[in-house]
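Long-time lurker, finally posting.

We've been working with HNH nuclease domain-containing protein (Sphaerosporella brunnea) and I want a structural starting point before designing mutants. I don't trust myself to interpret raw outputs, so I'm hoping someone here can both generate the structure tokens and explain anything notable. Sequence follows.
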Amino acid sequence: TPRTAAFRIAIEKRDRACILTGSNNHPPHVDKRKEMLCGPAIEAAHIIPLGRPDLWKPQFVAGIRKSRRLLRIGYAAIDQNVLENGIMLRADLHIMFDRFFWSVNPKTWRVVVFIPVAELVSFHGRKINRGDTNQFPPEPIWRWHWEQCVLRCLRAEGEL
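Top reply, 14 upvotes:
Generated this for you. Predicted structure of HNH nuclease domain-containing protein:
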């Protein structure tokens, strides 16, 4: 599944800023590009990696469909570029998220830093702002990312 501009636009409309820092990073004196609500250093991140369509499980799709039915929102294709699989992150935090340095506990919605990088440590324990929880990534998608971080952390401990 290729990355789409529609994915970023949808995530920006929902989140409006990095969910971790709250930063919009858009200089007020600079004209915004069409449809661009956040600055260039704020990116739309996939929780389930776009490059791994084999990880996109039927239970993710079923959960999204159920949520959309309750919200009375239609659904066309539900692939990895859906709103519920994305969050806005500052570029450096996005890279560390993709490398499983940190995640969000899907039960408490608090940030857990697994790899103590200086830029991350201050976010440990912070509750993320889910804003409008309509179409915010559901627990099963967050749980997948959380489990990947835990497994990698345990594997690293075992190698010491």
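Before you design anything, note these points.
The CA atoms of residues 31 and 39 lie 10 Å apart.
The mean pLDDT is 84.
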